[in-house]
Here is the input.
Amino acid sequence: MRWLLVGLSLVASFPSVAAELVVESDRPVVVVVNFKPHTVAANNSVRVDIPDHKHGNQGVTIRSLLGEQLHSAKVAVARQEVVYCRWSGRSFEIYKRETQIASAPAPAALPRPAPRPSSVPVEPAPIPTLGEDVHLAAVEEAADPEAAPAAHQVEAGPISAPASGQVGKVLFVGRTTSWSNVFVDGELLHEFRGDRDFLADLPTGIRQVTMKDFQNKNAWAHGRLFVYPDFQVELQFGQHAEPSAINRPEAWQSGDIWQSDD
Here is the structure.
């Protein structure tokens, strides 16, 4: 009986290790795990703890920042297991599984012996003189610019536009069910008639882009788009939402035209 109690106490002394689900993404998305949303920035990840009583299939949904469902899956997570998933290039994959092993608790530290009395005399701390405020002196010393060097502030420089003379790719993604037209430098580039995206080859540099309804009566948005020779910009737009270059935010600058049917 004694050995049974000792064994139970040893088992109870080991910490419980919860399972984890790690989801990575190459673009800003919202990862919903078991109906709980988590916002994930580009080239980042989120770690979700799975309690022991909730191991098994976990519901995972990938949504865009505008709320559109991009992917939905069931991911099996066992006890004390870490499952790594990746959302990249509009595809979802499970690329690694690891099993966590609980480590034994560190032994309790033995009490330190009391120090022996020292024969060296201890000088008493100086007593502030009358009218001297120790706290005020410390505050004044901290505020003195000559007492400590000021923090160096780095100002962000202006965003430089890509050079012209080459050809770059831009992926236009429509986040609306309404038909629309996309104009680049005043010319009709593409008519969205139920399709959701369009990959265009455009001259590099700064392009003037306008989104309109299919009758070209109302301009939804207008702005400047940076087209790079070595980087594909993904520009998302909708009827009631301002366009956004989700994988390179500085590539889009909204103009002064902004109308809606609201």
About this structure: The first strand starts at residue 19 and ends at 25. Residues 220 and 259 are 5 Å apart (CA to CA).
